[in-house]
Amino acid sequence: MPPFPPSRADASNRSTSAVAPAQTQRDARFVVLIPIRDDWESARLLLDALDDALGGAGLTAEVLMVDDGSEQPWTTWDWPTCYNHLERVEVLPLRRNLGHQRAIALGLAYLEAERDRPAVVVMDGDGEDNPRDVPMLWRRCVDEGMTKIVFAGRARRSESRVFQVGYRTYQVLHRVLTGIPVRFGNFSVIPPVRLASLTTVTELWNHYAAAAVRSRQPHVVVPTHRAKRLKGQSRMNFPALVIHGLSAVSVFSEIVGVRLLILASLLLGALSGAALGLGVYVWWTGQVVPKSWIVGIGLILGLPAFLALLALGFCVLVLASRSSAGFLPCRDYHFFFDPPQPVAPRLTTALPAESASIPSSRRAS
C-alpha cells in the first residue's frame, strides 16, 4: 500500500498517545462516513490505513460507505473479515447515482436518524483525505467541547497543475459572487449536536461544506496536507469541477443575487454618469452628435439596466422559493437507499486473546 505522508500532528501524537485526555478516551468512538462510487480498491487500502491510524491513537470507529450507484458491486472485491480498530464496516447502497454531495447528505441523515445521532467523520474514499489526520481532527473536536465542526483546511494540494489552476479560478469566482472564501472541503468531524442541526438544512442537498457555512454552524479549520490518490484515476474533470462549483455557489443564491444586483446598479450608474457628462459637453460646445452615437449610448446603457432587472428578478425568485417545500434531509432521506450491507462484522471483541491483534498483512480474508 502506498505510504501516506505524515500528519502535521504525528510528532505530538507519539508523545501524547500514551496519556490521552480522559474525555478523548471516553468519547473515542465515532462513525466514518465515506461516499464512494466504483472506487472500492482505494477504499480497501484506505480502511487498512485508517485502522492503523486509529490504533496508534487509541481510538475505535465504525465505517459507513455510501455506495453512490456504483456500476461494479462492492462484493466483487475481497474484503477483510474484521479489523482491529474498526468495529463495524457497512455499505449503504443508494438506489441511483446522485452525486458526491448528495451521497454525503443522505449518509448524514441516515446516521442521525438510524444510529442515534453519533459523531461523524466525513472523508473521501480515494485516500486524498489522509487517514492519519483523523485522530488530530477528532482531538480538536473534543478540545472544542464537541460543539463545533472541525474542517481540514488545505495547506497544500496534490493535484495536477491544470486542476489547481481551475480550482484557484473557482475560489476567486466564489469569493467574488458570495464574498466568502473557500478554505476547506468535505474532510471534517461533525459532533452530534451539529449533526442534528445540519440534517434540517435544505442546502445540504447541494453542498455539505457550503451548507455548514450558510447555516452558520460553529466551526474551526485545522490546516492539513492533501495526500495522493491510492488507486485509479480521479473522476473530478473540468465539467465535474464546474458542477461542483455551481453547487457550492447555489447555496448562497440570495447573496449572489443581491451582489449581482448591486454590481449591475453600480455599472448602470457609472455609465449613466458618463453619458450625462458627454451630453453636457456636447451641449456646451454646440457640436452635432451623429445618430449612431445616440444609438450606441442607448445600447451601452441598456445592457446594465437589463442585467439589473435580471438580478432583481433572480432575487425575487430565490426569496419566493423559500416558501416551497424542498428536500429536507431528516425527513426525506429514506426514499433513496436500501438496507445497509455488512462488510466486516463486529468480531474484534470476540476474538481469542492470542489473535486479538491482527497484523495488517493478515487482514485479508
TrEMBL record:
Chief place where the protein resides: membrane
GO CC term, one of those recorded: plasma membrane
Signal sequence region: none
Compartment(s) of residence: Membrane
Name of the featured protein: Glycosyl transferase family protein
SUPFAM superfamilies tied to this protein: Nucleotide-diphospho-sugar transferases (SSF53448)
Transmembrane intervals: 236-256, 262-284, 293-320
Biased composition (Polar residues): 10-22
Residue intervals of the Glycosyltransferase 2-like domain: 33-165
Region of interest called Disordered, as start-end residue ranges on this chain: 1-22
UniProt membrane topology term: Multi-pass membrane protein
Organism from which the protein derives: Isosphaera pallida (strain ATCC 43644 / DSM 9630 / IS1B)
Record-level Gene Ontology MF annotations: glycosyltransferase activity
Keywords tagged on the record: Glycosyltransferase, Membrane, Transferase, Transmembrane, Transmembrane helix
InterPro entries per record: Glyco_trans_2-like (IPR001173), Glycosyltransferase_2 (IPR050256), Nucleotide-diphossugar_trans (IPR029044)
